[in-house]
């Protein structure tokens, strides 16, 4: 895992098309802005895990977009 320190309004790039910006930090809560192409799905971890679990139950024919 790569660990980076960023301040409010600073960004990191993932490849050429995905930008993650720290919008604000308040206590233990960090707000992030994510710019990515529409074809790149972006999920919170808990939502991704729920989708994955539902797709495993549905069988191998369905994949997360």
Q: Can you put this structure into words, describing what you see?
A:
This protein has 65 residues and is an alpha+beta fold. The protein is elongated and about 45 Å long. 0% of the residues are buried. The protein has one helix at 45-58, and strands at 11-14, 18-26, 29-35. The longest helix has 14 residues, at 45-58. The chain has one domain. The protein has a three-stranded antiparallel beta sheet with strand order 1-2-3, with no helix packed on it. The protein is 22% helix and 31% strand. The model has no long low-confidence stretch (mean pLDDT 91).
What percent of the residues sit in helical stretches (DSSP H or I)? Answer: 10-25%
For the largest beta-sheet, the strand count, sense and barrel status come to: 3 strands, antiparallel
Q: Can you list the strand order of the major beta sheet? A: 1-2-3
Helix count equals: 1
Distance between the termini: 24 Å
Count of discrete domains:
1
What is the typical, i.e. mean, pLDDT?
Answer: 91
Which spans have pLDDT < 50 for at least 5 consecutive residues? none
How would you spell out the order of helices and strands? Answer: EEEH
* Assembly annotation: single chain
- Cα shape: elongated
Structural class determined from secondary elements: alpha+beta
Radius of gyration: 15 Å
Percent of sequence in beta strands? 25-35%
Q: Give the tally of β-strands.
A: 3
């Amino acid at each position: 895992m790569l660990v980076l320190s960023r301040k409010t309004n600073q960004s990191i790039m993932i490849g050429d098309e995905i930008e993650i910006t720290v919008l604000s930090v308040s206590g233990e809560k960090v707000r992030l802005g994510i710019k990515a192409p529409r074809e790149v799905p972006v999920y919170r971890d808990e939502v991704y895990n729920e989708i994955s679990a539902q797709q495993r139950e549905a069988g191998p024919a369905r994949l997360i977009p």
